[in-house]
Design a protein that fits this description.
The chain folds into two domains: about 75-135 and about 285-345, FAD/NAD(P)-binding domain; about 140-280, no CATH class. Helix 1 packs antiparallel against helix 2 and helix 2 runs parallel beside helix 6 (about 180-190). It is of the alpha+beta class. The protein has helices spanning about 1-10, 15-25, 55-70, 110-115, 125-135, 180-190, 240-260, 260-265, 275-280, 335-349; strands spanning about 40, 45, 80-85, 90-95, 100, 105-110, 145-150, 175, 200-205, 220-225, 265-270, 315-320. About 35% of the residues are buried.
Length: about 350
C-alpha cells in the first residue's frame, strides 16, 4: 500500500497526496489499495514528460522510422478478423472493406479483449483462455478533458505576472484536490459506488507553455487528467451529454476555487469519459492500460497465465500492446519485447 509507505517517510499531507496520485493514475484504486505503486521516466521516479507537437507527434515519429525501413502503414483501415489457415495458424488479417493482407506473422497491439474476443472465432481458442480474457479487470476511473483557454490560469497560491507570461508553475504538472490522501480515497469511494467524484483528483498540465505551436499566440491548451469517474453510472444512468457536462462543470468549479477566472477563460472543451475512451480509442472499459495494473494482472498473469511471453493460443499471432507484459505507459516495452519474440520465431520459419 503506497499510503503506508508515504506515512512512514513523510509528514506533509499535501506532499503525500501529490505523490500518491502517481500510484493511482488510470487505476480504479485508492492510495490505500494493496499493490498501488509509482512510475518513472528515464530513471526518475514519478516523472513524466511532454512530447513536442502533442502525443500524435510520437506516433508520427514511430511511423516515419518504420516507413524508412520498408514498412507499409494503412491508416483508417479497420481490421475485421484475423485470417487463419487450415492448421489454425495466423496467416494475416482481413479488413472491413474486404481487403486481405497476408503474412506469416501477425502482431496485435489492440487490447486482449478485441484481439481474442472480437477478431478471432471463439471455437479456435481454449475455453479457459477465453474465460480468463473475459475476466480481466478493465474498470477505468479516467475522464480526460481537453480545454482551450484565452489566457493562462492565475492561481491564488502563485498569481500570474502582470505581463501574463508563463511562470515556472505553468511548466509542470499541477495537482488539485490533493491536500490529503483522504480526499483521493473519498473520490475513489464515490466512483466505486457508481457516482462521479464530487471533488475529483485533477492533474492539470499546460503543454502549450513549452510547445507554443499547440495554440494561437496568447492562448493555451489545458490538459485535464481527472479521476474518479466510473465506467458505468449508478442506477443505470447513461453517460450522455448531460452527465458529461455536469461532471466537467464540477471539475471546472474545482479549478475555479484554485484559480479564479479560469471558467471565464474557457473558449472550448472536449470531454472524454470512460465510455468515450472505449468507443473512440478501443480501450476496454476506457482503461488506458488495456486492463488494470494490479498485482494479479501483471508479470506472468498478463494478459493470462501461461501467455505472458507475447505468444497466444493461435500460432503466429502475438500480443504486443499494453495488455501484454509489462503493461501500459508510454514506453514501448511490450512492443519491443514482442517484436524480439516474433523475430526469433520468424527465424525458425
Amino acid at each position: 500500500l503506497l499510503g503506508q509507505i508515504l506515512d512512514q517517510w513523510f509528514e506533509s499531507e499535501p506532499l503525500k497526496a501529490t505523490l500518491a496520485t502517481d500510484a493511482v493514475i488510470g487505476a480504479m484504486a485508492s492510495p490505500h489499495t494493496p499493490g498501488s505503486g509509482m512510475g518513472r521516466l528515464e530513471g526518475r521516479r514519478g516523472a513524466g514528460g511532454y512530447v513536442a507537437g502533442g502525443m500524435g507527434a510520437l506516433s508520427q515519429a514511430i511511423a516515419s522510422a518504420a516507413a524508412a525501413r520498408g514498412a507499409h502503414i494503412f491508416a483508417e483501415k479497420a481490421v475485421c478478423h484475423v485470417l487463419l489457415g487450415r492448421d489454425g495458424r495466423a496467416q494475416g488479417v482481413a479488413l472491413q472493406d474486404g481487403t486481405e493482407v497476408r503474412s506469416k506473422l501477425v502482431l496485435s497491439n489492440a487490447s486482449p479483449q478485441i484481439t481474442f474476443l472480437e477478431l478471432l472465432p471463439q471455437e479456435q481458442l481454449p475455453e479457459d483462455f477465453v474465460q480468463q480474457i473475459r475476466q480481466v479487470d478493465t474498470r477505468s476511473p479516467v475522464t480526460k478533458i481537453n480545454v482551450a483557454v484565452d489566457r493562462l490560469p492565475s492561481f491564488l497560491a502563485a498569481p500570474n505576472a502582470r505581463d501574463g507570461q508563463p511562470l515556472p508553475q505553468h511548466q509542470c504538472s499541477i495537482h488539485l484536490n490533493c491536500e490529503g490522501t483522504h480526499l483521493l480515497h473519498q473520490a475513489f469511494t464515490e466512483a466505486a459506488h457508481g457516482h462521479p467524484s464530487s471533488r475529483p483528483m485533477i492533474e492539470l498540465c499546460i503543454p502549450s507553455v513549452l510547445d507554443p505551436g499547440l495554440a494561437p499566440r496568447g492562448c493555451h491548451v489545458v490538459s485535464l487528467f481527472t479521476q474518479y469517474t466510473p465506467s458505468v453510472l449508478a442506477v443505470g444512468r447513461p453517460w450522455d451529454e448531460q452527465a458529461r457536462d455536469a461532471y466537467a462543470d464540477t471539475v471546472f468549479d474545482c479549478i475555479e476555487a484554485y484559480a479564479p477566472g479560469f471558467k471565464a477563460s474557457v473558449v472550448g472543451r472536449d470531454i472524454l469519459t470512460p465510455p468515450d475512451l472505449e468507443r473512440i480509442f478501443g480501450l476496454p472499459g476506457g482503461n488506458i492500460f488495456h486492463g488494470g495494473m494490479s498485482l494479479d494482472q501483471l508479470y506472468f498473469a498478463r494478459p493470462a497465465p501461461s501467455y505472458s511471453g507475447y505468444h497466444s493460443p493461435i500460432p503466429g499471432l502475438y500480443l504486443c500492446g499494453s495488455g501484454a507484459h509489462p503493461g501500459g505507459g508510454v514506453m514501448g516495452a511490450a512492443g519491443r519485447n514482442a517484436a524480439q519474440v516474433a523475430l526469433k520465431d520468424f527465424g525458425r520459419l
